[in-house]
Amino acid sequence: MSKKRKGFLFRFPLIAKEKNGTITITPDSQGSCYKHWDSSTNTLSFSKDDFRFMSPDDHHYVEFTLEDRTSKKLRFPVNPKHAMWVINGQNCPTATDTCVYDTVEPLAVFDGDTLLAVNLNRVKGKQLGFALNFVKDGDDDTDPANYIPWDPIINNRDGGS
Q1: Is the Cβ–Cβ distance between 25 and 76 less than 8 Å?
Q2: Which of 3, 49, 60, 136 is 20 to 30 A from 124, comparing alpha carbons?
Q3: b or e along 111-139 (b: 16 or more beta carbons within 10 Å of the residue's beta carbon)?
Q4: Where are the domains of the chain?
Q5: pTM
Q6: 7-156 belongs to which homologous superfamily?
Q7: pLDDT at residue 149, rounded to an integer
Q8: What φ, ψ does residue 51 adopt, rounded to 5°?
Q9: Rounded to whole angstroms, what are the CA distances from 123 to 3, 23, 47, 83?
């Protein structure tokens, strides 16, 4: 009988602020993922070995939520694959890149302010550049020219033990 895979949820709240017309997006230190965040390298690291209960077949669900403190009424695009772009390596993906969703995949957007993604984290040392895209209320969320990206790195440190 095969072992059932488990997913573990990590919350990663983000705060959008506006100053002098410039929008900045930063992680909120209250989320369960914050201890995995390195602001000096803009990297979100995952390691199944950090949790005794995780096996190699288990995965991380990551819930990104946006607290918008701007006057722009920011939200995620409705299509999760417009809300999150992922590529191999450390570069920030752009609209012209071919995204790869074999390790990290955006699953759903809820209420405009929450994106659920899954990180399978099966390859040790795999780094992924990703962008979370936001749009201003009223803008066409299918047009990448309207996106306000936040572009950190995911570092998968192991494939589980």
Answers
A1: no
A2: 3
A3: ebbbbbbbbbbbeeebbbbbbbbbbbeeb
A4: 7-156
A5: 0.86
A6: Cupredoxins -  blue copper proteins (2.60.40.420)
A7: 92
A8: -130, 115
A9: 20, 34, 11, 24
Distance CA 70, CA 43 (A): 24
Q: Which two tokens stand for residue 90?
A: 């450390």
Q: How far apart are the first and last CA of the chain?
A: 20
pLDDT at 52: 66
The span from the CA of 99 to the CA of 132, in Å, is 13
Tokens representing residue 154 in the block: 């995911």
Q: Output the pLDDT for position 156.
A: 62
Task: Let me know how long the chain is.
Answer: 161
124/146 Cα distance (integer angstroms)? 35
| Nearest in space to 104 (alpha carbons), one of 88, 123, 119 | 119
Mean pLDDT split into 10-residue runs, the chain, 161 residues: 66 92 85 71 74 73 93 96 91 90 92 91 75 95 95 64 42
Residues 6+ apart with CB under 8 A from 96: none
The amino acid that residue 94 corresponds to is T
Closest CA to 45 of 142, 159, 153: 153
